[in-house]
Specification:
Elements: E1 2-4, E2 11-13, E3 22-24, E4 31-33, H1 41-45, H2 48-55, H3 129-159, E5 207-218, E6 224-234, E7 240-250, E8 256-264, E9 273-281, H4 287-294, E10 301-311, E11 316-318
Antiparallel strand pairs: 1-2, 3-4, 5-6, 6-9, 7-8, 7-10, 10-11
Length: 321
Amino acid sequence: MQISCPHCQRQFTVSEVAIGKRATCKGCNQKFTVQRPGSTIADALVPKAAKAELIRPQPVRPTILPPVQTPTAAPVYESPPQLGFEQPNYQQPNYRQPGYPPGYQQVPPQHLSVVIQQPGMMQAPKENGFLSLVRRLVMIAGISFIGLILIIVYAVNKDTAPQPIASSSRSVLSVPPVNYEPVDATVTPPVAPPPTIPPPPVKQIPIQLQVIGKTQQEGKYQQQYVELEVRMHNSSSRDVRAFTGYIRVNDLFDKSVILLKAERTEPIVAGKSTDDKWSYSYNQFIPRESKLYHDNFEDLKFSFELDEVIYVDNGREKFGN
């Protein structure tokens, strides 16, 4: 679409999308509103759809207001009308109650009481307290009298009830009662007692070892030793060639201090004892060895555990695990 600047009349080519928008001329640098050729400025500023909306009358939509809720008043209950009773005048000579034919002779009631009750209430007619007490006493006396009669009748019937006739031994045969006990048809075979397993034989320890002394020794190159003096006894009937075991050392509180290896390769005659001295190296940096070295002999407890025995006749016997 070709348009011209209204100030310098310079021609430009623009699209219809720019109609109604502000533009700047490149020739005179003046701003103007882009409009269709042959139309006014007002036509350019107002779109067609807007002009149609301005020309077409808008329908008037009625405004719908929400219903107004009026507070509900509390119901008002009217009190029931009071019933009035007209007391007839029986003293009048010509009195006639409505509803009776003329000449009808009506006998006035001796006692007439009218009770007017309110709605929802029930009232009993009042009566004399003395008469009520008398009536209750009469009722209690009547119930007691009836109960006494029933007790007497029961006692009389109990005394006069027919007793069973004692029969003689000739006419009646008395059979003692028989108690029938259920018999179990299943026969349980006798259960054999479990075999008695004899306890395993206790092995006789052939070697007994006893620590009888402890000294401190120093060897070459200032090497220190703990020397134990032991006494060994062969309690078996066979000569022992060698044996191995352990010497367990505990303190006075039976806490383990150290476990020493015990081994002898010299024979011990059956039934004889022999003494020997065994030396163990000492390292001052190992706490258990240091305790064994420095503690007194009286403050330590020694026990021997036999592991294996080799006899002179080449027989072997294992005792340890």
